[in-house]
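Q: Cytochrome d ubiquinol oxidase subunit II, please. Structure only.
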Amino acid sequence: MDLAVLWFWIVAVLFVGYFVLDGFDFGVGMSLPFLGKDDTDRRVLINTIGPVWDLNETWVIVAGASLFAAFPEWYASLFSGFYLALLLILLALIARGVSFEYRHQRPEAAWKARFDWMIVIGSAVPALLWGVAFANIVQGVPLDEGHNFTGNLLTLLNPYALLGGVTTLLVFFVHGVVFVSLKTEGDLRVRAQRLATRAGVVTIVVAAAFLVWTGLAYGSVWFWILAAVAAVALIGGWLANTRGREGVAFTLLAVTIASTVLALFASLFPDVLPASNDPANSLTIENASSTPYTLEFMTWVAGVALPLVLLYQGWTYWIFRKRVKRSTIEQAAH
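A: Structure for Cytochrome d ubiquinol oxidase subunit II:
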């Protein structure tokens, strides 16, 4: 396989890892107003992702660094054209991370409430804007002959991209709520299962609309295959959740996210950023990639480093696999 094509799919897999792992973090953060009846509930929710959220977030750094090294032209066009959207994502992630660390530093309810809302907003904004960004990548944006973005923020906020953003927001929300039911017990677990069931119905409808629109406008054979896998997994995850099988539901929702991301990359191939104004200005795998020597070196590094990262991540989840109990939180408060 050509190394540029290989790295196109490696970048896709890295974004799969990021959206699957940080996606449920976003969902847990967004669930605070819906599941947090009191401060103890909210502490339980935050503690479900407390040991892993920062590790999950590093996947976007690896994905961005790989994109920069393997496809510098693609990286440059994205980060210049999508600058404001990516800046908002960065600020939201910073606000969320700060809130996790600072909300417990003072006992006042108002202090904690402010940071709780920062967690909610810091989770919802990236969940929405990542979908907007990827939908625009698939749809294409206006580029000049130098592959520079010639539109503005309103160009990116088109109906198709906004539908993509709402889709990722809802899918991440349901994924996170199912994770809450997987990691908690008692009343909170039951309420999380109910919320995931209700939100899942809306998510299925919105996600179906987005996938059908994408397939009809930009789809390929491989897109339709992967989109079908995503659809079956999403419905299966919803059904598993209604039966109290949160482990199965969480796994199937992870498959949904992974299949959707791969489907979007399949709809792009062999482009990496289509030019909506003139196909001749499009960025492709061929004209956006680094030199063969750079890609070869990166391949050797990835072959050694990626298995180690996966082993460490798996070990971390194994160590923190137990459910978070409300009683433990209440005891720690005394």
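A: Brief note, in case it's useful. Residues 3-295 form a domain with the Formate dehydrogenase/DMSO reductase fold fold (CATH 1.20.1630.10).
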